[in-house]
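Shipment paperwork, digital attachment
Item: protein structure file
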Amino acid sequence: MGCAREVVPVTPDELSSALRAHARWSATAGREGEKLKLVSADLRGVDLTGTDLVEAELFDVDLRGARLDGVAAGGIWLSGSRLEDASAIGLQAAKANLVEITAARIVLRGACLHRTDMMRVDLRDADLSDCDLSETMLTNAMLQGACLRNATIDGASLADSDMSGTDVDGLRGIDTATLDGVVLDDRGPLSRKEALDSLRARGAMDE
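Attachment content:
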């Protein structure tokens, strides 16, 4: 996950001003305002509900326990950030970079993560129900105990991911997903056929 950086405190006024500038930047296609760029910022427990974070750059940011419900975040960079116990219901983060985020127990119910890079993420015990994970890169992901009920994984890659104990009832699109090396139980890494047979037996669907 890389070397730990010193956490940088951000005051509420500083954050509010930066968010307003970013919203202006986003609304004017970069002609006005300023793009939000934060590195190693301490944003624990912050309420960002409904804000515009499209294409923001938040590297190694601490967002543990934060509220990100309904946030527009297409193309956002959150690589290396911490989001344990955060709430991101309905997050719109297509084509984002979430590589190596640590987000155990995050609630992403109904989020759009289409074509998002989520390699090597920690999503243990996360709520990913009803998520759009189509064409999402989830290779080497830690998904133990996660809820994937009624999520969509058409064209996604879950190669070498650990899905032990996941709830996959109603999971759709498994026939087009890359599943080589997936771990579903104590048998260890499975072949694609073994993974498909096991997922279907647990309520997952091809379409």
